[in-house]
Amino acid sequence: MTNQLPKATSYLVKDNGNVKVHTLVSPAPMFANATHIIELPRELILVDGQFFAQYGQEFRTLADSLQKPITRFYVPHDHPDHYLSMGDAFADVQVYALPEIIESLLKNGPHELQQKQQQMGSLIAGKLALPTEAVEPGEEIIGGTRFVFERVLNTESPSALVIKLPELGIVIAQESFTTMPMPLLQGLLMAGKQH
Ligand SMILES: [Zn+2]
Asked: 178: CA distance to ligand 1 center in Å?
């Protein structure tokens, strides 16, 4: 695949010495989708897919540059800009989502992919990486860091996953409360440095 679109930008938005959070944002005309890598001491947790195949590949390149295994990829909800790009770049990764999001993506994902491929050709990934692992609300320690998973209902989509990292003061709420970029994320981006 050749790169046909302007490149995404990545930021180091948090570094507490133990855990780093990296965010990759597609250019504003390309929806400004923000996707995140939580870099734990020995593994990477990824949150949110991109829409265009190229940004899925750029997200993978960023993850690979950190030289740690990707152990989980969380898809927060079922809009195409959260999963459509992932199939080619993350075919080997375990994908997690709320059970109702898994069900929705199994049902609607293939048609959505086919439709977007017809409209946009090679800008769209060739296949899907559908979630197989169910996440339930609650707390989990992953790689020594506390993750809080919450289900948020009836916001931009009927059901969405919010991930909190209390020790880092981070809330990853992908468009759950508004369709505009999250003020929190903007604040993080302002504080972060480009790399
Ligand atoms: Zn959405």
From this structure: 10
